[in-house]
Amino acid sequence: MSSLIAAKLAAVQQQIQEIAAHCDRNPQSITLMPVSKTVAPETIREAIAAGYPLLGENKVQEIQSKAAALADMPHQVHLIGHLQTNKVKDVIGLVSCVQSVDSLKLAKKMQQRLEFVDSHLDILIQVNTSGEDSKNGIAPEQALDLIDAVCAFERLSIKGLMTIGANTDNEEAIRACFRQLRQLQIAAQHKYGAYSDFAVLSMGMSADMKIAIEEGSTLLRVGSAIFGARDYAAS
Asked: Which of 162, 148, 179 is nearest to 31 (CA)?
């Protein structure tokens, strides 16, 4: 059954294909992740039904509150927002990946909880490539040291890196953020190739998707282009 959400997803997917073709990339190497923060479960179900079962959520509380309503539809959730150490116990078992690991303290807490429940979890290392105080993430110059430390935690599997582009209309500044993450990915692949291929580059949202694809993104976190403007006062 067709829906407005399915139509918007198709439109975004078409944009991805066109941008990828223009920069000689295989569009199948780029995953579109609908970001469903503040979105009602019935609307999220439309996205899953349209063939997009990988969702991004910002808050542990939202993931918990939506879990029952989506339980009958096969899907996966990535936590893309900041994770406080006291929320680690709540998110383990509800997500397939935490994209926002940015400190050794958090990684240790996750490792301890995963040992307790005898489980494993995929993660991305979040890097603050913009240098903006409003954004979380490890500083770029400290990223490889954090990766080096987290590699020792056998319950955590680093799949790649995540960043948020600079909050600006300056395309070159945004591009510099994404390019720096790509350079860190290459450095990590060279140094830690035996541990992980670090294949995932999670970068790019509705407003800067084109630049992200041009700079090598493999995972786009797209919210407003699919679900419309958010009512954060209701979240």
From this structure: 162
pLDDT of residue 195: 57
**Looking up tokens 């350079």, which residue turns up?**
183
Note the pTM of the prediction, 2 decimals: 0.94
CB atoms within 10 A of CB 230: 14
DSSP state of 221: E
Q: Which architecture, in CATH terms, is 4-227?
A: Alpha-Beta Barrel (3.20)
Is the pLDDT score of 18 beyond 60? yes
CA distance 193 to 129: 22
Angle in degrees, 0-180, between the axes of helices 41-49 and 60-70, rounded to the nearest 10:
70
Q: Determine whether 216 is exposed, middle or buried from the number of CB atoms within 10 Å of its CB (0-12, 13-18, 19+).
A: buried
